[in-house]
Amino acid sequence: MADTPDLSEIVQRLEVVEHKLGIYFVPNAEPILEELVEKLDPLTLQNILREVEAKVLALAMMGYKAPALKGLKAAMSKKSWEMIADDVQYHMKLGVTEAGIRQAHLEMMGIIKRMESKGQLVLKVSNPSPELGEWMKRNAEPTGTSFKKVEGLDAWKKDILDKV
Question: Which of 53, 75, 83, 135 is the most buried (most CB within 10 A)?
Fold first, then answer.
């Protein structure tokens, strides 16, 4: 009879599978990234956005509340904002999964982390939440995922994105 693996061994095995599949998830990645987008100054945000693909940004911003969207809009030209809004609409028609949005969040967070480690970016956030403060200190590694279809994006677009 084979030994039953303990919980930490199971978690390690899952992380290996997730890594091979390219699936990652940082718990609470959305609020952390949303808070960064909301609180960073427009110039810093512009530097980050130069590194982010339009598709990634369109997916990452889905579900953001108005303050974060206003922060993004302030950092972008009117034409760029309109193009990203069109990309959001396009991806909503295709159907968006939580995993797709979270992967976009992780890509953006990875870009921020890489830029900060190379000295291209200095993150200065006044009054960060405890979660953001902790992330900024340790730059957590991603684990886990979800393939559940995202619901409510049409209402979000109508109530929030269209009014920003």
Answer: 135
